[in-house]
Amino acid sequence: MNPHRRQRQHSPRGLYLVTPDDADCGQLSARVAPLLPFATWLQYRNKAADPALRRHQAAALQAMCAEAGVALIVNDDPALAAAVGAAGVHLGADDGDIAAARALLGADAIIGVSCYDDIDRARAATASGADYLAFGAFFPSSTKPAARRARPELLRQAASLPLPRVAIGGITPDNAPALIAAGADLIAVIGGVFDAPDPTAAARACRALFT
Ligand SMILES: Cc1ncc(COP(=O)(O)OP(=O)(O)O)c(N)n1
Ligand SMILES: Cc1nc(C(=O)O)sc1CCOP(=O)(O)O
Ligand SMILES: [Mg+2]
């Protein structure tokens, strides 16, 4: 079995690092490499890249993740996840359905679903075979300023569902403890790590919140 997919059998916890849009392949790899020791999962997300660049960057990150023992999850695009042998895919409301992704990626793949502030969407995703549920945005996000906002109480409510809960949106090492106390199993972070004065220290601090 792919060792990165084996995590699906356990209860994943920790930092779910998400990449910033960065068109420079070498720079993206150099920014991510020192952070991988602190990440449970890495999501490749680049909303600005064309398909060729996305393919190139996803393949480079997959090689780094395989080396580091971190599961790579590709945002939006099950076909790209399959092409580079990633561990899974993250699907939002506009990104296609779980069944199609499952058919393409197989039973072991990690398929995550955005639930925003909507517990009914989380129930439906659970019934459709999702592997984790993402809620947010919990804090103002400079990456996604117009993101719908969610309250920590939603994480408590989602404890009734049998899947890992991911919190996203404006998360930093300073504000994450309230979300973890509310039940977040993973914190998904872009700016709170990559825009920090010392990204490695920020990633380490996120990781330490789960120990
Ligand atoms: C872990 C995680 N949670 C939520 C999202 C957002 O997905 P989506 O709503 O499809 O928005 P985009 O990221 O595609 O702009 C995510 N990517 N990851
Ligand atoms: C990609 C994304 N999705 C969100 C949601 O609420 O679904 S918030 C968000 C942005 C996450 O980046 P940062 O950590 O910089 O705020
Ligand atoms: Mg999406």
TrEMBL record:
Its EC number is 2.5.1.3. Binds 1 Mg(2+) ion per subunit. SUPFAM superfamilies: Thiamin phosphate synthase. One of its GO terms (molecular function) is thiamine-phosphate diphosphorylase activity. The gene is thiE. It catalyses: 2-[(2R,5Z)-2-carboxy-4-methylthiazol-5(2H)-ylidene]ethyl phosphate + 4-amino-2-methyl-5-(diphosphooxymethyl)pyrimidine + 2 H(+) = thiamine phosphate + CO2 + diphosphate; 2-(2-carboxy-4-methylthiazol-5-yl)ethyl phosphate + 4-amino-2-methyl-5-(diphosphooxymethyl)pyrimidine + 2 H(+) = thiamine phosphate + CO2 + diphosphate; 4-methyl-5-(2-phosphooxyethyl)-thiazole + 4-amino-2-methyl-5-(diphosphooxymethyl)pyrimidine + H(+) = thiamine phosphate + diphosphate. 2-[(2R,5Z)-2-carboxy-4-methylthiazol-5(2H)-ylidene]ethyl phosphate binds at S141, S142, T143, G170. Pathway: Cofactor biosynthesis; thiamine diphosphate biosynthesis; thiamine phosphate from 4-amino-2-methyl-5-diphosphomethylpyrimidine and 4-methyl-5-(2-phosphoethyl)-thiazole: step 1/1. This is Thiamine-phosphate synthase. Condenses 4-methyl-5-(beta-hydroxyethyl)thiazole monophosphate (THZ-P) and 2-methyl-4-amino-5-hydroxymethyl pyrimidine pyrophosphate (HMP-PP) to form thiamine monophosphate (TMP). Transmembrane segments: none annotated. Keywords: Magnesium, Metal-binding, Thiamine biosynthesis, Transferase. Belongs to the thiamine-phosphate synthase family. It is an enzyme of class 2 (transferase). It comes from the Bacteria. Mg(2+) binds at D76, D95. Its cofactor is Mg(2+). Residues 15-192 form the Thiamine phosphate synthase/TenI domain. 4-amino-2-methyl-5-(diphosphooxymethyl)pyrimidine binds at Q43, Y44, R45, N46, K47, N75, S114, K144. The lineage of its organism: Bacteria, Pseudomonadati, Pseudomonadota, Gammaproteobacteria, Lysobacterales.
